[in-house]
Amino acid sequence: MYYNMTKQILCALGTLLLLAACGGKGCCPASQEGPLAAEENSADFVTLSDVVPDAILEIRYYGTYNFVGARIDGYLQPTALLTRRAADSLRAVSDDLKAQGYRLKIYDAYRPQMGVDHFVRWGKALDDTLMKPYFYPNETKDSLFIKDYIATRSGHSRGSTVDLTLFDMRSEKEVDMGGTFDWFGRESHPDCGGNPETGVYRKNDTVTATQFANRMLLRTVMLRHGFKPYDCEWWHFTLRDEPYPDTYFAFPVQQLNN
């Protein structure tokens, strides 16, 4: 009994320390409620590399290195799509960062509804924990819906949301953000280690001052060019004036001819 009580106390203390390092607010939902309009028309979308040729594409859901461990439904080619408006704004981001010695690395952009549905099916298969050591070692799979890591709808399906990081052209390496893309945990929150509104770092054992500064560089430039951040993921941004705020698209990810 003594051992169990001690273990519980230590776990509670560990949780409190992490919350202190990463801010105290909980994660916000990644989806919205209401009727779903699945739209197949891709006429107002562009292939991102046609607009932002300097971007490096590492489309995680086309491959198997992602939290599911398999190619996600609807990802037919390793490319990235966005609405024209979002792509033009991201070009401005790219030009700004290129002048500072960086390129953008894109993990995901438009995500078809069938891909979101694939996530939901995977989330309900509690025995499938192949990638747990890499993306959610501190979470039980049955908590992923409760904590909004997985939802039935994603802003990515509206076509103006992008997941990205920075690539340093001088070192020829990805910039250290203090955490990996799609990590399920509070360490992924932009406020982990500091105040993203002021850019002031708070010393902690989770994110270093340099890592926090790198997160703030990406955030600052994205904000400057019309994107808004997401409270739970340092890599996730949505165009503030997105053209389809209530439409969720269903066409697959593949090179567009328009």
Q: What does this 3D model show about the protein?
A:
This protein is α+β, with helices and mostly antiparallel strands. The chain has one domain (37-249): Muramoyl-pentapeptide Carboxypeptidase, domain 2. The protein has helices at residues 2-22, 48-51, 84-98, 113-124, 132-135, 209-224, and strands at 38-39, 45-47, 56-57, 81-83, 102-108, 161-168, 173-174, 194-195, 200-201, 227-230, 233-239, 248-249. The strands form 4 sheets. Strands 3, 5, 6, 7, 10 and 11 form a 6-stranded mixed sheet that branches. Strand 8 and strand 9 form a beta hairpin. The longest helix has 21 residues, at 2-22. The protein starts with a helix and ends in a 9-residue tail after the last strand.
